[in-house]
């Protein structure tokens, strides 16, 4: 399966399957690492995966999915769990994924800073605190001060 976010990875998936007479319980355990792109510098960054997922599978008249209960038609004689595995791993990816402070690609961070008005995107090596204001907003601030 292709993913725009996941570049590569190595995740071990253990599946414990139990049958109690009328339903199957599938207990997935995920451990490993995937490689995703940093939102800030676009370099590869690792993301640890350590999660679990449980789903109950029952036979019924037609396909239905509610919470963690999956009902499949009685005519189906197999269940493809690939999408369950993919979705569980994809849900572990945070909305914003960036390197820890100071670990972004310095060259890309410098280019990004040169094209944005926000000076706080990445720490600088010289520990200088940005104290100035954006001159484009100074005129508007003066209007507020005059009232």
What does this structure look like?
The chain has a five-stranded mixed beta sheet, with helices on one face. Mean pLDDT is 85; it is low at 122-127. The longest helix is centred in the C-terminal third of the chain and has 12 residues, at 135-146. It is built from three helices and five strands, in the order βββββααα. With 147 residues, it is an alpha+beta fold.
Distance between the termini: 60 Å
Q: Choose one word for the global shape.
A: elongated
Strand content: 35-45%
Give the helix proportion (percent range): 10-25%
Strand order, main sheet: write it out. 1-2-3-5-4
Regions with little confidence, pLDDT below 50 for 5+ residues: 122-127
What's the mean pLDDT score? 85
Q: Oligomeric form of this entry?
A: single chain
Give the H and E element order: EEEEEHHH
Tally of discrete structural domains:
2
Write a short abstract of this structure.
The chain contains three helices and five strands; from the N terminus they run βββββααα.
Which characteristics define this entry?
2 domains; alpha+beta; 5 strands; single chain; 147 residues; 3 helices; five-stranded mixed beta sheet
Layout of helices and strands:
Elements: E1 6-19, E2 23-37, E3 44-60, E4 64-66, E5 69-73, H1 82-91, H2 106-114, H3 135-146
Parallel strand pairs: 3-5
Antiparallel strand pairs: 1-2, 2-3, 4-5
